[in-house]
Amino acid sequence: MTDMWHAGAPQFWRRSPVTSVLAPLMGQARWRVCGGVGVPAAFSSRGEEEASLRTGAAFTDRSWLSTYLVSGAEAARLLDRVQTRDVSQLQVGHSMRTAAVDDEGRLIDLCTVYRLEEDVFQLAGEVAIGAWLARAAAHFAVALEETTGSLACLQLVGPAIGALLDALGAAQGDRLAAGAMELVEDGSLAFHLCRRGPGTPDAYEMWFSAVTAEHAMRRLLALGETVGLRPVGADAFEALRIATGQPRAFAEFEPAILARERAHARTPFACGAGGLVDLDKPFSGRRALLAAARAPAPRPVRLAIEGFAAARGQSLRAGASLVGVLTSAAVSPSRGASLALGFLDAEPAPGAALEAVGAAGPMRARILGAFEPDPGGPKPRFGRRHGDGG
Q1: What is the reported pTM?
Q2: Running DSSP on this structure, what letter comes out for residue 16?
Q3: Closest by CA position to 376, among listed 156, 203, 171, 128
Q4: pLDDT in tens, 101-135
């Protein structure tokens, strides 16, 4: 059998722990690079994959995420210092979405923090922050271990996922609260199940060791036959991210530690992630974000755009005025349009038609609403007084 990983995939991509099982399922060898890892762009048509996400049971490979294990007596204190939400609120066996910012309040990444034990946390995100995190940890009593590549992660999505969780032996399964985790042990298979978005209650993360990845995948696919479980590629999952209004690195913001120029980095308030900032707790960059919270910021918007030619970087125009820019776009066959995220620097004049301006000409655009990440876990709270904390 031809190794489909080598069919047109450059050798410098890192390989996901589940590639050996997923590659033979692809109709064509089309890949996307996420976090330096090659992942399938699609397994079938976009319409079929959209239908699985919306009405069935589907999964996609998220093993490319950068992950770090932070442990020790001051682990929570370190994470509180570099993240914008109060990790002390997080109970063992729960997780929360949060933002990592630099000393000037500029966004580095949108992360998920998982509390595995009282003094043991896992941190996962889209940006490789190991060196930055190590510098921040220098004066804390913690152990820091990068676990990127040693873990496999699948995102399970769809209304039929509950039946699959029952088959996998999850005691709580679809009864898990948002952000809650469950350790599932089924014979030789063990994994952590975490309920979360993007933006939907019918989505879970399944974390397991890369060592057992092939066995776990084959068991998952065998059990999934009973509920019609289907793999979906990165392209369909990107459309889901945009539809549910979840900003991401390298699209809605440039990570501050990688920004070519200071002006290219944004604060969380300037990229639709202000809901992840708890200004009532001390953290590095808090003083800068107190000022940023009061400053005008572009309005984050979700849009539907006629046709299938919308693309990142296209301008938004209202009448003769340029009012904003698209930061993400994806085709949605089920909607017969493109879906997009973008920012409005100015509000369209009353009655002015909003358009995205592409190479082939203007395309009618319609604002569907605002966007920001679903925080999960305990909500940021306001009104409690602390010192500046940076």
Answers
A1: 0.90
A2: P
A3: 203
A4: 999 999 999 999 999 999 999 999 999 999 999 99
